[in-house]
Structures are given as structure tokens and as C-alpha cells.
């Protein structure tokens, strides 16, 4: 007696090959494909799939669910999109490995985008952190050793290059993180303390994890050189000099015409035998912490020093208009998405320009004051993307899907609730930019290959039963910038490790997620 039979669906197996009619039998946490008669198959539960696409569970290559999964293990904003595996530790902004004091500093510094850890829940090693997710969450997780954690552990928050012993310490921590199950090393090179690094430091860490199968994932250094392609050229340089695969996070630029140039740069790297891929979300907006608008020198020494500096009039005068965004854009389009306290809740959903105008303050004073009032816990959505560039880049063969979903606040970027169904609805069904098979491949088999997950990402006999069923005619992402916290429609069944997590559009309460490990 099998546990579950999904009968007579349109199977899109994840490889990009043409779909076919068939059934899927699940025994425990593994699957068997049946293309013929199923009348002799006995199962505890049968789901008729005549109107559905049946495909592998979606793998989100870029998420910020590190703490929110611990606070809300049902994880409906992502699971109801069909996400069955989340990549954590992104942008170099996560928490393991960390000693006790450094962990608390990182928790406070990153709370605007990651939230806070549950009361009494703490960890030190990557292994300790990953154990928190086993059979305690609705989806699987993979983890990347974050640059911020190992740099702070090795040398604090200082704005300088490491000495030889500090460099060795970072490399040792990265190797140990890999041995604990991480899949690679990630950086956020526009954030402290990652911004204080140079290319040689990063090459050294990447070389250290080469023999244990590490991948380098990078939020590029957007302030570098021409601030357009040079930030991404540094990622390719690190891949070439270290000899490990590289993956560029949220690959996009809002400047008109940059899509073709960014595609050409990836092709250039691949033609030079650099193993490069990238992820991308389909919404024309970025999201991050408000204190990232402050010059990187203001962060020198860590969160305590940062708070001390921004209280000083002389420091604010020195910062001046440097908080204005790149490429001539304005802060009218930077919308506050999350604040810590009710005192400033009225500003969620309103722009930084609105805040400064209403308070009768210079922009720098408005930013610093709300950061002080909220103990740095302020995030924003920057509606400055470029739809044409998105549609150019999404078609590239090295592209895979990453939501970059930030779960905090009442006005998150709609990508948090809508990335995967938006692609199926808008880019596949409405605009025909991608075929259904190719879109599913970018969400499943491609990220599984990049991660080296040999038992997921494709529907094939003996694979793990991470499965999504959606109606290709009705799947939709209603989340908008004005009303972002809306669940998708048309994704009615989600199975993780053989257990129904979403059944007829309703979360079952099951928590079968696992921490998937590289070693």
C-alpha cells in the first residue's frame, strides 16, 4: 500500500524536456513515475491531477528566512508558492558560526530584514544552527557560510584587511562550516563588515573551501569601478583565481539597456571557463536595511559605534547627501517596509521623502533619527527596478530563481509572496517569455544541480518526494506593492519529503522539513 497516488497529471519533470501525462506514486519520502494504467495501485490517498501540472518542489536560491522559519515554521508565504527548499545564509548576512557576544551583535544589526531569534534559542556552529530546522519546519533548508559571521569572529568589525592569522581563522571557519553541511560561502560586499574586504581576502576563503566542494555566492560590491559591470567582474575574478563555481545573487540593474550587457558579461565568463550562474527575482524593486544607505565608514567598529556616530551632528553633516541612491534616482521611491516599534508604524508603506518632509528635517537627520528610535531595525523597498532588463536577463540559460524574500514588516516586497507564481502566471502564461518546462527547470533542476543535490529537483524514480501541483490556467500572484501580503492562487498541493504540507490550498500543519547537507 503506497502512501499517496497522484493520478493522471501533466508531469513537468524539471529537466526542461516536454511534459507528459502520467501518475506519481509516493512511498515514504520517495517517488515512482507511472505512465500507464494505475488501476492496480493501492494507496492510502489518491489525488486526481487531471487539471494540474505536477512538478518538483521549487528551490529558492536566495532567501532571508534564517530566523523567520524558526519563529513561524509553517512558513506559508513561501510554502504556498510551492517552495520546498530555501537557501539560507545569503548576502553574507547570517549567524553561524558565531560566539555568544558576536551572535547577539549580528542579531541586532540584521533584525530589520531577518527578524529576531525565538526567546532562548541560540547556537554557535553551523551544525548547531542546522539542527534547529530538522522536522521543525515546513520546508527544507540549505545553508551558506556567511562572510559577516566569520569575519566578525576572526577580526571584529574593523574597516581594514585581515592580517595573516585572521585570514587563516576565516578560512578555517569556512572549512568547518562546510564540514558541518554548508554548501559554500556567501558575501554581501555593500554591507559591513563584508565591504571592508578586498578581492584577495575573498579569493583566499574560496580557495580554502575548494577541496570540500564549496560554491561562492555573492551580493556584488555595487560601489566598485563603474558601479555597473565592474561589481560583477569582481565575482568572476574570484571564480577564476580560486577555481570554484560562482553564483551571483539577484542579478539585475535598473539602468536602461543594462540587461544585454549583463547577459554578455556572463557569457564572457563562461567562455573563459568560469563556472558562473546567477539568480533573479521578477519584480522591479529591491529591499534591504535602512542603515545600508549610510556610508560604509560610519559602520566601522560595529553596531554600537554606528549608533554612537549617527547621534553626532558633525557626522551627519559629513554624510550629507551621500545617502542618495546611485544612478540619479531619488528617495521618493524608497518605501519603508518594516519598523521595530508601534511608535513609527505609521511610516510603513510611506517613502523616506514623506518621512523627512513631515518631520521638517534634512534627509540625513530623518534617516538617523528613525534608526536611533528603532534601534537600527528599519527596512525599505526601493521601487527602482527595470522590467525590460528583468525580461532580458531571465531568458539566459544560467538564470535560476531566487525570491530574495524578506519576511519582516507589513509592507514587504511582493516578491516575498509572489515570485514563483508570478513567473508561471506573467512570464509563462501571459507574456510567453519562458515555456512552462523551461520556467520549471529554472526553479527546480537547475538550482539542484548548482547545489549538487542529486536526489531532488527532478521527478524521477527514487528521487525524494518534494512535489508541487498547480493549475497552469489559474496560477497567479495577487501580491502588489500596495497590498503585498497575499497568498498565490492555483498552487493547491505542496509535498515535502513525502508529506502533504499544502492540501487543497490549506496548510496541513505538517513540519517535515530537513536541513540538507553538502557533506
Count of helix runs: 18
Give the strand content: 15-25%
Task: Tell me the span between the first and last alpha carbons.
Answer: 33 Å
* Rg for CA atoms: 22 Å
Q: Architecture of one domain in CATH?
A: Roll
CATH topology of one domain: Urease, subunit C, domain 1
Question: Spans of 5+ residues with little confidence (pLDDT < 50)?
Answer: none
Strand elements, count: 21
Q: Determine and state the CATH class of one domain.
A: Mainly Beta
Helix content: 25-40%
Integer average pLDDT: 97
Instruction: Give the overall shape, derived from the CA principal axes.
Output: globular
Specify the structural class: alpha/beta
Q: Major sheet: size, sense and barrel closure?
A: 9 strands, mixed
Name of the CATH superfamily of one domain = Urease, subunit C, domain 1
Which secondary structure elements does this structure contain, and how are they paired or packed?
Blueprint: E1 4-11, E2 20-27, E3 30-34, E4 46-48, E5 53-56, E6 58-60, H1 68-71, H2 76-79, E7 83-88, H3 100-109, H4 111-114, H5 126-131, E8 140-143, E9 145-146, H6 147-155, H7 164-179, E10 184-188, H8 199-208, E11 215-219, H9 230-242, E12 246-248, H10 258-271, E13 276-280, E14 286-289, H11 303-310, H12 313-319, E15 334-339, H13 352-359, H14 363-373, E16 378-382, H15 387-393, E17 399-401, H16 415-430, H17 436-443, H18 445-451, E18 467-470, E19 491-496, E20 499-503, E21 506-507
Parallel strand pairs: 1-4, 1-5, 6-7, 7-8, 9-10, 10-11, 11-12, 12-13, 13-17
Antiparallel strand pairs: 1-2, 2-3, 5-18, 14-16, 15-16, 18-19, 19-20, 20-21
Helix pairs in contact: 6-7, 7-8, 8-9, 10-15, 13-14, 16-17
Amino acid at each position: 500500500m503506497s502512501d499517496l497516488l497522484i493520478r493522471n497529471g501533466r508531469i513537468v519533470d524539471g529537466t526542461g524536456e516536454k511534459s507528459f501525462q502520467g501518475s506519481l506514486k509516493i512511498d515514504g519520502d520517495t517517488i515512482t513515475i507511472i505512465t500507464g494504467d494505475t488501476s492496480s495501485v493501492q494507496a492510502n490517498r489518491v489525488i486526481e491531477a487531471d487539471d494540474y501540472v505536477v512538478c518538483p518542489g521549487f528551490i529558492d536560491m536566495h532567501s532571508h528566512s534564517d530566523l523567520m522559519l524558526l519563529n513561524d515554521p509553517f512558513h506559508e508565504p513561501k510554502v504556498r508558492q510551492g517552495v520546498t527548499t530555501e537557501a539560507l545564509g545569503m548576502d553574507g548576512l547570517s549567524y553561524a558560526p558565531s560566539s555568544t557576544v558576536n551572535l547577539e551583535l549580528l542579531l541586532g544589526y540584521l533584525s530589520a530584514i531577518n527578524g529576531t531569534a525565538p526567546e532562548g534559542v541560540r547556537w554557535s556552529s553551523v551544525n548547531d544552527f542546522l539542527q534547529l530546522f530538522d522536522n521543525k519546519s515546513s520546508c527544507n533548508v540549505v545553508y551558506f557560510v556567511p562572510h559577516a559571521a566569520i569575519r566578525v569572529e576572526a577580526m571584529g568589525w574593523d574597516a581594514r584587511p585581515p592580517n595573516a592569522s585572521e585570514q587563516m581563522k576565516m578560512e578555517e571557519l569556512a572549512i568547518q562550516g562546510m564540514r558541518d553541511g554548508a554548501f559554500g560561502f556567501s558575501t554581501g560586499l555593500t554591507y559591513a563588515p563584508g565591504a571592508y574586504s578586498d578581492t584577495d581576502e575573498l579569493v583566499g576563503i574560496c580557495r580554502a573551501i575548494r577541496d570540500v566542494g564549496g560554491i561562492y555566492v555573492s551580493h556584488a560590491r555595487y560601489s566598485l569601478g563603474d558601479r555597473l559591470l565592474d561589481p560583477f567582474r569582481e565575482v568572476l575574478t574570484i571564480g577564476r583565481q580560486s577555481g570554484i563555481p560562482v553564483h551571483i545573487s539577484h542579478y539585475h540593474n535598473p539602468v536602461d539597456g543594462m540587461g544585454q550587457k549583463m547577459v554578455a558579461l556572463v557569457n564572457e565568463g563562461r567562455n573563459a571557463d568560469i563556472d558562473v550562474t546567477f539568480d533573479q527575482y521578477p519584480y522591479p524593486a529591491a529591499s534591504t536595511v535602512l542603515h545600508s544607505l549610510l556610508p560604509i565608514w560610519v559602520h566601522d567598529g560595529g553596531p554600537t559605534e554606528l549608533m554612537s556616530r549617527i547621534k553626532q551632528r558633525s557626522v551627519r553633516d559629513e554624510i550629507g547627501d551621500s545617502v542618495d541612491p546611485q544612478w540619479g534616482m531619488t528617495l521618493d521611491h524608497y518605501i519603508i517596509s518594516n519598523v521595530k516599534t508601534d511608535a513609527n508604524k505609521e511610516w510603513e508603506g510611506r517613502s523616506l521623502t514623506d518621512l523627512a518632509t513631515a518631520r521638517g528635517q534634512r534627509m540625513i537627520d530623518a534617516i538617523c533619527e528613525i534608526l536611533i528610535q528603532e534601534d537600527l531595525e528599519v527596512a525599505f523597498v526601493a521601487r527602482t527596478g527595470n522590467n525590460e532588463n528583468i525580461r532580458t536577463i531571465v531568458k539566459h540559460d544560467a538564470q535560476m530563481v531566487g525570491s530574495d524574500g524578506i519576511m519582516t514588516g507589513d509592507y514587504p516586497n511582493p516578491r516575498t509572496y509572489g515570485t514563483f507564481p508570478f513567473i508561471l502566471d506573467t512570464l509563462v502564461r501571459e507574456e510567453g517569455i519562458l515555456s512552462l518546462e523551461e520556467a520549471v527547470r529554472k526553479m527546480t533542476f537547475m538550482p539542484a544541480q548548482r547545489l549538487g543535490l542529486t536526489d531532488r529537483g527532478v521527478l524521477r524514480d527514487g528521487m525524494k518526494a518534494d512535489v508541487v501541483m498547480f493549475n497552469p490556467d489559474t496560477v497567479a500572484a495577487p501580491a502588489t506593492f500596495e497590498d503585498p501580503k497575499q497568498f498565490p492562487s492555483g498552487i493547491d498541493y505542496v509535498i515535502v519529503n513525502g508529506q502533504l504540507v499544502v492540501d487543497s490550498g490549506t496548510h496541513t500543519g505538517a513540519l517535515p522539513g530537513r536541513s540538507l547537507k553538502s557533506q
